[in-house]
Specification:
alpha+beta; about 160 residues; five-stranded antiparallel beta sheet; about 30% strand; Alpha-Beta Plaits; 5 strands
Length: about 160
Amino acid sequence: MSDLTHIDDRGRATMVDVGAKDATERRAVARATVRMSEATAAAVRAGDAPKGDVLGTARLAGVMAAKRTDELIPLCHSLPLSFVDVEAEVGATTITLTAEARTRAQTGVEMEALTAASVAALTVYDMVKGLEKGVAIAEVVLLEKTGGKSGVWRRA
């Protein structure tokens, strides 16, 4: 088990010690997709959802969640985020939420981007569930990660 980075010599999950690593500029982009009917997507686009501004609320929820990632995901490091944003795009039957997070730190920021996209998608779900019972969060994926020794990684 000693080859696993998050497992100690006794087999327990542990936070990785990044103290010896250099702080570098790091960036991550993640996307969540919420599927719904054309009528529900049209209501969101028009600003006619019963709970109010779906996209604005989802964007803020995503940013707020990214800032609390270390409280939500065990073993994540607290990071000094320099930037977080969530963009929302309404399609015919989907809402796509793309989150970007940046930091200058000793470890990556992908969990913050994924958390932002996930919570933004959950917020959309919560705000439109009164319009439609069949709404589904279809995917949450990491699109890009830059910084550190790994350089640049992009989803193919």
